């Protein structure tokens, strides 16, 4: 898996090359009151003269249609969902010099947490004994399944500097080297890749699918002394004329053999969210910190608005274009994507106000409702490829505009975005394509790492 990417690209924020995700000033996002190869699976279809089943055993009745069945696991996932944001709080273990202090943040139950006399309830709370594997099970596994089912899916990590965002998203740099590729400390991103590839291989590799009844997959090859090698349970149909054959082929197209699912995954490690006055930033770093802060402040503002809109049901202008960060992430925020937000907090007493601020941010994020739909196209291959070209062009334009544009304050937006977000985006396309007796999976991974 790792060989797909050059290690430089994949290396997370090591202390050495980590982007200076510099702290913020008093433009805290929480300033608003909070309460509230293409795989070729040999598909075998025999066209016989006469509808007979011998020597094969009878096949089970038709269960599901291919359109909801291209990918295993998809059958239980609805094609559209008014999805709330899944919010997980992760409390990191105390560092050596924090050990004496005791923890200011307490996990109360599996989904509630307290800080001072404030109690918050989220979807899950991971505490100091929670492992990387635990967090992967909470957010990584569902993300992979959603993505395979055709939903765009995002994970954001939010929290002050040093609260454990990068550790959660990537793991420590030592866990990402090839020798440690099975380290327990590896974070969400490598685990998501591993899982995605293994699921895709599991689904498509070496599987024989009955293209006259695509619900029948992973059929077994048998050998019979009399009839030779055959595929067990394969559908056989009588055909007398070319027209009969064409009708069978058409039926398969109608059944969705030509469907394609496309989904995007965004894995986002945001800049630290602390107030700038708590840092010693000066000069250019101070200015840069101000810009980052502004972006995160706009993100906070956007999240407030989206939360209000979701709760009140009233339409209003959503200011995605107020900052590059919100523009870049708009699909994940209130749009066509499932979103999980991991809010990382430090247990330290010294970080109490920042941790409280993070939990309030998390509470507001919880109110957002996204509208995720399965991105499925059933056009013919040419149309589908056209769509892919269009998406790639859009992406190129976006990347180019990020590179060239300049913010009002004179900062390059590319630089600005780089400092503000560490984003890994990839697209997955799964399709079964004509010609008829061949099943092809197209995968395209696009790596956009901004750091
Ligand atoms: N759950 C954890 N278990 C063990 N160590 C952790 C955990 N979370 C964080 N750490 C350690 O705490 C330190 C700070 O974590 P990390 O670099 O992930 O913070 P961050 O929120 O990404 O900070 P920044 O905003 O500066 O990028 C690192 O040394 C990291 O290894």
UniProtKB/TrEMBL annotation:
Region of interest: Disordered: 1-63
A cellular component term, taken from the record's GO annotations: microtubule
Does the UniProt entry include the keyword Translocase? Answer: no
Q: Which GO terms describe its biological process?
A: microtubule-based movement
Q: Keywords in alphabetical order, please.
A: ATP-binding, Coiled coil, Microtubule, Motor protein, Nucleotide-binding
Look up the coiled coil feature and give its residue ranges: 375-402
User: Kinesin motor domain: from which residue to which, for each copy?
Assistant: 84-368
User: Could you tell me where the Polar residues compositional bias lies?
Assistant: 1-17, 28-39
Where, in this chain's numbering, is ATP bound? 159-166
InterPro entries (UniProt xref): KIF15/KIN-12, Kinesin_motor_CS, Kinesin_motor_dom, Kinesin_motor_dom_sf, P-loop_NTPase
Q: Does the keyword Iron apply?
A: no
Q: Which family does it belong to?
A: Belongs to the TRAFAC class myosin-kinesin ATPase superfamily. Kinesin family. KIN-12 subfamily.
Name it.
Kinesin-like protein
Q: Which organism is it from?
A: Rhynchospora pubera
